[in-house]
Write a structure and sequence with these properties.
Oligomer: single chain
Structural class: alpha+beta
Helix content: 55-70%
Low-confidence stretches: 1-23
Number of domains: 2
Shape: elongated
Number of strands: 6
CATH architecture of the largest domain: Up-down Bundle
CATH superfamily of the largest domain: Outer membrane efflux proteins (OEP)
Radius of gyration: 39 Å
Length: 439
């Protein structure tokens, strides 16, 4: 027992060290997605469901083979004996042994249809698993980009604080020389405090973004979790003009949810065939062999067994005559089920089309907004540089300077948002076109 506890303790230590070693490493997007897919509960449950489908398929195929079973019966009997004129019970015992087998010869292809349905369920399970994996991969991509976005926000806030702190030192010197009023100095000081609060909020958002990604990856939250910082300049404005029809046709051919919906419709169509099989006779064959022993027989036990062997064989035909509308009800329900599967397939395609339409619109609008934000930032930066120089020379007061600085902060924030909106829109469009998610 002590050895077992020691082994378990060592195993837990090794596993724990492996987890924290993974957290200390630098995570790429691909590595994050791979880890999430290997550890996500929904993915693992889908994989277990697929194993069940395989077992059901094997069971369905086994129904084609003959069944075989053996039985052994031991009987004890008592009866009153009047032959000797004495009252009382006389006992006897007997044994029966039998081996029987049966096989279905004809059942209107019901077994064949059930086997086909089971095989289709395996394929459908695979596509369902792929759909789950794609959904998780998109969530990982979004969380990963949220961290990059938050990190840039923190970096921008730190730069703003550094700039404003320098201006505050200058304002303090000018206040000592009575070149500016106490009010001007207080406004610059207030601006610095406001930017420090913005930095704190940005740092908080960064922590939340990291926690979100770690939880999606099924990792314990750690302060040592870090991701790589890919060069995203190549992902910026590519001036794409996506064609909805082309993207939609590509997605129809490759997306697992579309294939899964088609398979579910095919399975539903086979339900009607299975139900209609109940209208036809079922032909079965059976064979068996039996023997027995009775204590009332004077022959020996093995003598009775050897001489009492009785083989048997036969056919049975079950003809449905009146089934209380059970078969008709099953057929009617199967038809409704098929119509429902058709609607589900249409809804899946319709949802995909709408998503692609939205993705194409997002790409176009994101490109326009990014260019506008970039132009606005350049103009605002130029104006801020001039205001900064004028403030240092004492040409403008702190109010005008802070207005210019606030405009720059807003323009920089809008540019950052438009940048990541553009990257996300490109990645989602690539996703529908079957391009692997990467940065």
């Amino acid at each position: 027992m002590r050895k077992l506890i020691l082994i378990l303790s060592i195993s837990l230590i090794v596993i724990g060290e492996d987890i924290f070693a993974q957290q200390d490493s630098i995570w790429t997007l691909e590595k994050c997605i791979e880890h999430a897919l290997n550890n996500n509960i929904q993915v693992r449950k889908s994989e277990l469901s697929n194993q069940q489908y395989m077992i059901y398929s094997e069971q369905a195929k086994a129904q084609r083979f003959p069944s075989a079973f053996a039985s052994i019966n031991q009987n004890f009997n008592w009866s009153k004996s009047t032959a000797t004129g004495e009252s009382g019970l006389t006992g006897s015992n007997g044994s029966n042994y039998s081996v029987n087998s049966g096989v279905t010869i004809f059942n209107a292809s019901r077994l064949t249809t059930l086997i086909k349905q089971a095989d289709l369920s395996i394929d459908g399970g695979k596509y369902s698993l792929e759909t789950t994996k794609e959904s998780i991969s998109l969530s990982i991509l979004d969380a990963y980009l949220q961290i990059l976005y938050a990190e840039e926000q923190v970096h921008n806030s730190e730069k703003q604080i550094e700039s404003t702190a320098s201006e505050l030192n200058l304002a303090e010197e000018r206040l000592a020389l009575q070149a500016i009023s106490q009010s001007d100095y207080a406004q610059v000081k207030s601006q610095l405090a406001s930017e420090k609060l913005t930095l704190a909020n940005s740092q908080s958002q960064l922590v939340i973004a990291k926690v979100t990604l770690e939880q999606l990856m099924e990792l314990p939250v750690s302060d040592n979790f870090n991701i790589t910082h890919p060069d995203l300049t190549e992902s910026l404005n590519q001036n794409r003009v996506p064609d909805v029809k082309s993207v939609y046709e590509t997605a129809l051919a490759i997306k697992p949810q579309i294939k899964n919906a088609a398979i579910n419709k095919e399975i539903a169509s086979l339900d009607e065939k299975v139900a209609k099989a109940g209208l036809f006779p079922t032909l079965s064959a059976s064979a068996g062999i039996s023997s027995g022993f009775s204590s009332l027989n004077n022959d020996s036990y093995f003598g009775q067994i050897n001489s009492g062997i009785y083989p048997s064989a036969g056919f049975s035909l079950s003809i449905p005559i009146y089934q209380k509308k059970q078969v008709k009800t099953s057929i009617a329900l199967a038809k409704i089920g098929y119509q429902n599967a058709e609607l589900s397939e249409f809804d899946t395609k319709n949802t995909l089309r709408k998503s692609i339409e939205q993705a194409c619109v997002d790409v176009k609008s994101a490109q326009i907004k990014y260019e506008a934000s970039k132009e606005n930032y350049s103009a605002t930066l130029e104006a801020e540089v001039l205001s900064d120089e004028k403030f240092k020379q004492g040409v403008i007061n702190s109010v005008d300077y802070l207005v210019s600085k606030t405009n720059l902060i807003v323009a920089e924030s809008e540019l950052l948002q438009s940048k990541y909106n553009l990257i996300v829109s490109y990645k989602i469009l690539d996703f529908y076109m079957g391009i692997p998610l990467s940065l």
